[in-house]
Specification:
The protein has 14 helices and 19 strands. The protein is an alpha/beta fold. The structure holds dihydropyrimidine-2,4(1H,3H)-dione (DUC) and zinc ion (2 copies). Keywords: Hydrolase, Metal-binding.
C-alpha cells in the first residue's frame, strides 16, 4: 500500500535497501527470486506499508522541573513495536544557551541509543542575534526545520518581533518554521485567575487554554509567515477554528501546513472532566494534560480534525509524544494544574490508532499511509529514502495485519516508560506483525529483535512539500 494506491506485490530487499517491487511470483532476470533469497517473509493477507515516521517527539524533554520519561532508548523501542521506523525529535536550545550547544546535547542523548533512525528539528527558545546567526548553519547539519513557541512565557516563548526575525532566516535558508500556536501571555493570565478562584483541577488546564487562544495565535503566525514570505507548519492543531485559519490561508495558495495528533481525533475535554479514580480522584484528568489541550466534543473539534485530514487542510498526524508518569511527575501539579508537566505518550499507538480511521471509514487506506509516513517524509526532507516502498529506498517496512487485534493498556501493548496509558482500554482492529528497519527485522510478532544503537542519525534535506 502506498499513498497513491494498492496492489499485490513482492518486495525484494538487499541489505538495507529495497531493490525491486515485483509482481507476485515474478522471475527477475530469469532467476526464481523466492528460491534465491536468504529469507522470505510471507505477508499474504496483510498490508505492506512504508514504516511510520513520527515527526514530532520529545524524548527526555526537560519540562516543569522534570523530564519526559522516555529516553531515546525506551521511546524508540516503543515506536518500533508500533510500526514507526523513524522519528524526528526536537533538540532544545534554552534561553542563554548557544543553538549549537543545544543541538550537540541532543546528539549526545540520542547517539548509540536509538532502535530506529532519528532526525532532529531545532527548538529555538531564545531568538537573539547569536541564535539567528547560528540557525543559518542548521541545514548543513541536516536540521532543516526549527520550532518556535508563542506559548510558555519565561520558558520557550518568542514574541512577534523574534518570530518575524526567525522567519526571515527561514525564508533565506529554505528552512521550515514549525509553530506552537497558542497565545501564552493571555493564557497565563486566564490560568492565574482560575487558580485564584480555587479552580486547580486538571480540567481547568483546558479551560485556560481556550480555542480562541489557538485560533488567534494561528492567525498571527500565518500573517507573520506571509509578510516574511516563509513557509509555516503549525504543530498539534486541535481547535476547529485554527483549522479554518489554515484552510483560508491554503485557499489563497500560501505555503501553510498543519499536523494534528491522535489525542485530538479521539479524546475530549469532556472525557477528561469525567475521569475520576479511587487512586487520584479528579486528578485522574492529569493523564491527559497536554498543550494544545483536549477540546470539547460538544463543539465538534474532533470531527473537524478528521474532516481536515480528508480535505488536506491538515497534512499529517504526529504524536507530540511527551510522556510523564503520574507518580512523581504529573503529581507535581496536584494542587495547581499549571504545575502538571504537559504531555501525552502515544508513539507506540499512532499507526494503530490511525488505522482505526480506516476501519471506521474516516480515511482511506492510502491516506493512512500518506498521513503517517509519506507526507512526513516529504514535509521534512526525507522522501525517497523514507516514506515510500520503491527501489533505492531504505527497507523500512511494516507488515500490518488488518485481521489482527491489539489491546492497549499499561499491562498490555505498552513499551513506553510510563506508569499509565492515555489509551487504556482501547481495542484496535489490526496489528503490527513485522517491522523492518533498513532491512533488519526488529519486531517479529510482539518480540523485539533489534538492539540499542541500530538507529542512525538522519541528515535531512529541505522540505519537498512546498509550493
Ligand atoms: N505540549 C505538550 O503537551 N508537551 C510538551 C510541549 C508542548 O508544547
Ligand atoms: Zn508544542
Ligand atoms: Zn511538542
Amino acid at each position: 500500500v502506498s499513498a497513491t494506491g494498492r496492489a499485490p506485490a513482492d518486495v525484494l530487499i538487499d541489505g538495507e535497501t529495497i531493490r525491486a517491487v515485483l509482481e507476485p511470483g515474478s522471475n527477475l532476470l530469469g532467476t526464481d527470486v523466492a528460491a534465491s533469497v536468504d529469507r522470505v517473509i510471507d505477508a499474504s493477507g496483510r498490508y505492506v506499508i512504508p514504516g511510520g515516521i513520527d515527526a514530532h517527539t520529545h524524548m527526555e524533554l526537560p519540562f516543569g522541573g522534570t523530564a519526559a520519561s522516555d529516553t531515546f532508548e525506551t521511546g524508540t523501542r516503543a515506536a518500533a513495536h508500533g510500526g514507526t521506523t523513524s522519528i524526528i525529535d526536537f533538540a532544545v536550545q534554552t534561553y542563554g544557551q548557544r543553538v549549537q550547544d543545544g543541538l550537540a546535547a541532543w546528539h549526545q542523548k540520542a547517539a548509540g541509543n536509538c532502535a530506529i533512525d532519528y532526525g532532529f528539528h531545532q527548538i529555538v527558545g531564545g531568538v537573539d542575534d547569536d541564535s539567528l546567526a547560528a540557525m543559518r548553519a542548521l541545514p548543513d547539519e541536516g536540521v532543516s526545520s526549527f520550532k518556535l513557541f508563542m506559548a510558555y512565557p519565561g520558558v520557550f516563548y518568542s514574541d512577534d518581533a523574534q518570530i518575524l526575525k526567525a522567519m526571515q532566516v527561514a525564508r533565506d535558508t529554505g528552512m521550515l518554521t514549525m509553530m506552537h500556536a497558542e497565545n501564552g501571555p493571555a493564557i497565563d493570565v486566564l490560568a492565574q485567575q482560575l487558580v485564584d478562584q480555587g479552580k486547580t483541577d486538571p480540567y481547568y488546564h483546558g479551560i485556560a487554554r481556550a480555542w480562541e487562544m489557538e485560533e488567534e495565535a494561528t492567525h498571527r503566525a500565518i500573517m507573520l509567515a506571509k509578510v516574511t514570505d516563509a513557509p509555516l507548519y503549525v504543530v498539534h492543531v486541535s481547535a476547529k477554528q485554527a483549522v479554518e485559519q489554515l484552510a483560508t490561508a491554503r485557499d489563497k495558495g500560501w505555503n501553510v501546513f498543519g499536523e494534528t495528533c491522535p489525542q485530538y481525533l479521539y479524546l475530549s475535554l469532556e472525557d477528561q472532566l469525567g475521569a475520576k479514580s479511587d487512586e487520584w480522584g479528579a486528578f485522574e484528568g492529569a493523564k491527559w494534560v497536554c498543550s494544545t489541550p483536549l477540546r470539547a466534543r460538544a463543539d465538534g473539534h474532533q470531527h473537524a480534525m478528521w474532516q481536515a485530514l480528508r480535505t488536506n487542510d491538515l497534512q499529517m498526524v504526529s504524536t507530540d509524544h511527551c510522556p510523564f508518569c503520574m507518580k512523581d511527575q504529573k503529581e507535581l501539579g496536584l494542587a495547581d494544574f499549571r504545575k502538571i508537566p504537559n504531555g501525552i505518550g502515544s508513539i507506540e499507538h499512532r499507526m494503530d490508532l490511525m488505522y482505526q480511521g480506516v476501519v471506521t471509514g474516516e480515511i482511506t487506506l492510502e491516506r493512512w499511509v500518506e498521513l503517517t509516513s509519506t507526507t512526513p517524509a516529504r514535509m521534512f526532507g526525507l522522501y525517497g529514502r523514507k516514506g515510500v516502498i520503491q527501489p533505492g529506498a531504505d527497507a523500512d517496512i511494516v507488515v500490518y495485519d488488518p485481521n489482527g487485534h491489539t489491546s492497549i493498556g499499561v499491562d498490555k501493548a505498552h513499551h513506553m516508560n510510563m506508569d499509565y496509558s492515555a489509551w487504556e482500554g482501547y481495542e484496535i482492529d489490526g496489528h503490527v506483525d513485522t517491522v523492518l528497519s533498513r532491512g533488519k527485522v526488529i519486531v517479529d510478532g510482539d518480540e523485539y529483535l533489534g538492539a540499542k544503537g541500530d538507529g542512525r542519525f538522519l541528515k535531512r534535506g529541505l522540505s519537498q512539500y512546498l509550493l
